[in-house]
Write a structure and sequence with these properties.
The protein is α+β, with helices and mostly antiparallel strands. The protein has twelve helices and six strands. Helix content is 48%, strand content 11%.
Length: 287
Amino acid sequence: MTGTDLSTGARLLFTQGDFDLLCSDLSKVRLSRAAATSSAVPVVLSPVTFNNYGGTCEFEYPVWVKDVVDPDNRRRPAGRSLLRYRDMKELQNSKERPFIHLVDGGVSDNLGLRAILEGLEELEASPAFRAAAGIHNIRRIALIVVNSRSAPSTDWDKGEWAPGFFSQVLQASSVPIDRYTYESVELMRDMVARWQTKRELRLAEVRLAGATETQAEMKIPRIKAYAIDVSFDWISDPKERAYFMNLPTSFVLSPQEVDRPRELAGQLLRQSEEFQKLVEDMGGMPQ
């Protein structure tokens, strides 16, 4: 689950790693409060407030921070990582910010994907982080994004009068989240493609320096990355797609409304070309 800092727009994951920033114990947080935070759509529902003790414990910044903030680092600083570092510093300032008010995590990271994108950037920018993560021992990275975004149909554009206040508030909050979600998925695919291109360039440099093909492969390990998107958009049947797109966002769903998306997720995953490539690469038989 994810919450969004109402003051700064920063992402706060409900993981102990992020709660270490607050010098707080995640195990003491009730699941109901985490769920309420994840559902606190701005204006519609109230923020959930947490005590902030950041800066009062022996919190240590991750190893990538030193490389990212180093002005002499020849690599292009990772912009998202720098922003994340600033967010972390804000959360450590409990003297000025003893309380953190959190709203729906969808405002900052609806899919929980931004943390992965930042992590990939941090790996690119920080040799120390790559060593700590054991990147040379990794052969495959599979990013599977399951997006249950719905888009209920409306008849607003058939009439002269604009929708009412409540409808406008819901639409104003959901449209930016959906657009941001789409951008995150596309950014994930772009980053995977960039990793592959950079590896080919590095291989070419090593070969030009006189290394054999085998030596080049050993010097620059091949890491295959797969970006797999599972969403209602990929449903081929128009009637079935319309059904799922019109499922309401609700705290109460019928057993059928719960079971059908679960079954659909497996079907869409198996139909994904990227997933089939991953299965084949691992020695399985694509369906």
